[in-house]
Amino acid sequence: MIIGVTGRNKAGKTTAIRMLKERGAKDLSLSNYLRDIVEERFGKHERDNRKILREVGNELREKYGPGYIMEQTLKKIARPLDLYVIDSIRNPGEVLALRTWKYGSFFIAVDARPEIRYNRAGFDPHRKEEYKTFEEFLADEQKEEMAAEHGQQLTKTIDMANFVFFNNGT
Known about the structure:
There is one protein chain. By secondary structure, the chain is an alpha/beta fold. It has a single domain, classed as Rossmann fold. Helix content is 45%, strand content 15%. It has 8 helices and 5 strands, in the order βαβαααβαβαααβ. The chain has helices spanning 13-22, 30-42, 50-64, 68-74, 92-98, 114-122, 134-142, 154-159, and strands at 2-7, 26-29, 84-87, 105-111, 163-166. Strands 2-3-1-4-5 form a 5-stranded parallel beta sheet. Helix 2 crosses helix 3 (50-64) and helix 4 (68-74) packs parallel to helix 5. The chain is globular, with a radius of gyration of 15 Å. It starts with a strand and ends with a strand. The mean pLDDT is 93.
Protein backbone atom coordinates (compact mmCIF):
# COMPACT_ATOMS: atom_id res chain seq x y z
CA MET A 1 0.00 0.00 0.00
CA ILE A 2 1.20 3.48 -0.83
CA ILE A 3 -0.01 6.69 0.76
CA GLY A 4 0.72 9.61 -1.54
CA VAL A 5 1.01 13.06 0.05
CA THR A 6 0.69 16.52 -1.46
CA GLY A 7 0.17 19.98 -0.07
CA ARG A 8 1.31 23.55 -0.12
CA ASN A 9 4.60 24.67 1.41
CA LYS A 10 4.54 24.74 5.21
CA ALA A 11 1.09 23.13 5.41
CA GLY A 12 2.40 20.30 7.59
CA LYS A 13 3.27 17.55 5.11
CA THR A 14 6.58 16.76 6.80
CA THR A 15 4.84 16.25 10.14
CA ALA A 16 2.20 13.99 8.58
CA ILE A 17 4.92 11.93 6.88
CA ARG A 18 6.92 11.70 10.11
CA MET A 19 3.84 10.34 11.88
CA LEU A 20 3.36 7.70 9.17
CA LYS A 21 7.04 6.73 9.39
CA GLU A 22 6.69 6.35 13.17
CA ARG A 23 3.99 3.78 12.39
CA GLY A 24 6.24 1.79 10.08
CA ALA A 25 5.88 3.41 6.66
CA LYS A 26 8.94 3.66 4.45
CA ASP A 27 9.29 7.02 2.72
CA LEU A 28 10.09 8.04 -0.83
CA SER A 29 10.02 11.49 -2.37
CA LEU A 30 9.57 12.71 -5.92
CA SER A 31 11.77 15.66 -4.93
CA ASN A 32 14.61 13.30 -4.00
CA TYR A 33 14.45 11.81 -7.49
CA LEU A 34 14.77 15.37 -8.86
CA ARG A 35 17.53 16.27 -6.37
CA ASP A 36 19.69 13.43 -7.69
CA ILE A 37 19.28 14.74 -11.25
CA VAL A 38 19.96 18.35 -10.19
CA GLU A 39 23.10 17.30 -8.31
CA GLU A 40 24.32 15.37 -11.36
CA ARG A 41 23.72 18.34 -13.69
CA PHE A 42 24.58 21.34 -11.50
CA GLY A 43 26.54 20.03 -8.53
CA LYS A 44 25.74 19.28 -4.92
CA HIS A 45 25.44 22.97 -3.99
CA GLU A 46 22.24 23.29 -6.11
CA ARG A 47 20.58 20.09 -4.80
CA ASP A 48 17.98 22.00 -2.75
CA ASN A 49 17.47 24.98 -5.07
CA ARG A 50 13.66 25.09 -5.37
CA LYS A 51 13.73 27.04 -8.63
CA ILE A 52 16.03 24.51 -10.33
CA LEU A 53 14.08 21.55 -8.90
CA ARG A 54 10.87 23.04 -10.30
CA GLU A 55 12.45 23.63 -13.73
CA VAL A 56 13.92 20.11 -13.95
CA GLY A 57 10.61 18.57 -12.88
CA ASN A 58 8.72 20.56 -15.51
CA GLU A 59 11.30 19.60 -18.14
CA LEU A 60 11.02 15.87 -17.35
CA ARG A 61 7.21 15.93 -17.34
CA GLU A 62 7.19 17.79 -20.67
CA LYS A 63 9.67 15.38 -22.26
CA TYR A 64 8.41 12.05 -20.86
CA GLY A 65 4.84 12.73 -19.73
CA PRO A 66 3.16 14.11 -16.60
CA GLY A 67 3.39 10.83 -14.65
CA TYR A 68 7.06 10.18 -15.39
CA ILE A 69 8.58 11.26 -12.06
CA MET A 70 6.10 9.11 -10.11
CA GLU A 71 6.71 6.16 -12.43
CA GLN A 72 10.47 6.41 -11.79
CA THR A 73 9.91 6.69 -8.04
CA LEU A 74 7.62 3.63 -7.97
CA LYS A 75 10.45 1.60 -9.54
CA LYS A 76 12.45 2.15 -6.33
CA ILE A 77 9.98 0.15 -4.24
CA ALA A 78 11.72 -3.08 -3.27
CA ARG A 79 8.93 -4.65 -1.19
CA PRO A 80 5.59 -3.79 -2.82
CA LEU A 81 3.44 -5.21 -0.01
CA ASP A 82 5.03 -2.95 2.63
CA LEU A 83 3.54 0.42 3.57
CA TYR A 84 5.14 3.37 1.78
CA VAL A 85 4.52 7.10 1.90
CA ILE A 86 5.48 9.15 -1.16
CA ASP A 87 5.62 12.94 -0.97
CA SER A 88 6.23 15.93 -3.25
CA ILE A 89 3.38 15.07 -5.61
CA ARG A 90 2.61 18.27 -7.54
CA ASN A 91 1.02 17.29 -10.84
CA PRO A 92 -2.25 15.44 -11.62
CA GLY A 93 -0.34 13.04 -13.89
CA GLU A 94 1.70 11.94 -10.89
CA VAL A 95 -1.53 11.15 -9.01
CA LEU A 96 -2.82 9.12 -11.96
CA ALA A 97 0.47 7.19 -12.09
CA LEU A 98 0.22 6.53 -8.33
CA ARG A 99 -3.29 5.17 -8.76
CA THR A 100 -2.03 2.51 -11.18
CA TRP A 101 -0.13 0.83 -8.31
CA LYS A 102 -1.65 -2.65 -8.26
CA TYR A 103 -1.06 -3.16 -4.52
CA GLY A 104 -3.28 -0.23 -3.54
CA SER A 105 -2.84 3.48 -2.94
CA PHE A 106 -4.49 6.32 -1.06
CA PHE A 107 -3.82 9.98 -1.78
CA ILE A 108 -3.99 12.71 0.86
CA ALA A 109 -3.40 16.46 0.88
CA VAL A 110 -2.35 18.70 3.75
CA ASP A 111 -3.29 22.36 3.55
CA ALA A 112 -3.44 25.46 5.73
CA ARG A 113 -4.31 29.12 5.31
CA PRO A 114 -1.59 31.19 3.57
CA GLU A 115 -0.97 33.44 6.59
CA ILE A 116 -0.33 30.44 8.83
CA ARG A 117 2.03 28.84 6.31
CA TYR A 118 3.94 32.12 5.87
CA ASN A 119 4.41 32.39 9.63
CA ARG A 120 5.66 28.80 9.76
CA ALA A 121 8.17 29.58 6.99
CA GLY A 122 9.67 32.28 9.20
CA PHE A 123 10.52 29.67 11.81
CA ASP A 124 12.13 27.25 9.36
CA PRO A 125 15.92 27.72 9.46
CA HIS A 126 16.17 26.39 5.89
CA ARG A 127 13.65 28.90 4.52
CA LYS A 128 14.04 31.87 6.87
CA GLU A 129 15.72 34.11 4.29
CA GLU A 130 13.72 32.82 1.32
CA TYR A 131 10.62 34.93 1.90
CA LYS A 132 11.08 38.51 3.04
CA THR A 133 7.41 39.44 2.66
CA PHE A 134 4.03 37.73 2.56
CA GLU A 135 3.70 38.90 -1.06
CA GLU A 136 6.96 37.11 -2.02
CA PHE A 137 5.66 33.96 -0.34
CA LEU A 138 2.43 34.14 -2.37
CA ALA A 139 4.32 34.91 -5.60
CA ASP A 140 6.51 31.84 -5.12
CA GLU A 141 3.40 29.77 -4.50
CA GLN A 142 1.92 30.93 -7.82
CA LYS A 143 4.83 29.23 -9.59
CA GLU A 144 3.32 25.91 -8.49
CA GLU A 145 0.16 26.66 -10.46
CA MET A 146 1.26 26.40 -14.10
CA ALA A 147 -1.51 25.83 -16.61
CA ALA A 148 0.71 23.67 -18.82
CA GLU A 149 0.15 19.93 -18.51
CA HIS A 150 3.84 19.37 -17.68
CA GLY A 151 4.00 22.07 -14.99
CA GLN A 152 3.25 22.01 -11.32
CA GLN A 153 -0.50 22.20 -10.81
CA LEU A 154 -0.80 22.04 -7.06
CA THR A 155 -4.44 23.12 -6.71
CA LYS A 156 -5.61 20.54 -9.28
CA THR A 157 -3.45 17.94 -7.55
CA ILE A 158 -4.91 18.74 -4.12
CA ASP A 159 -8.40 18.50 -5.62
CA MET A 160 -7.65 14.88 -6.57
CA ALA A 161 -6.94 13.83 -2.97
CA ASN A 162 -9.04 11.13 -1.34
CA PHE A 163 -8.86 13.20 1.83
CA VAL A 164 -7.66 16.73 2.69
CA PHE A 165 -6.34 17.59 6.17
CA PHE A 166 -6.69 21.27 7.07
CA ASN A 167 -3.82 22.03 9.42
CA ASN A 168 -4.61 25.56 10.56
CA GLY A 169 -3.55 24.90 14.16
CA THR A 170 -0.12 24.54 15.69
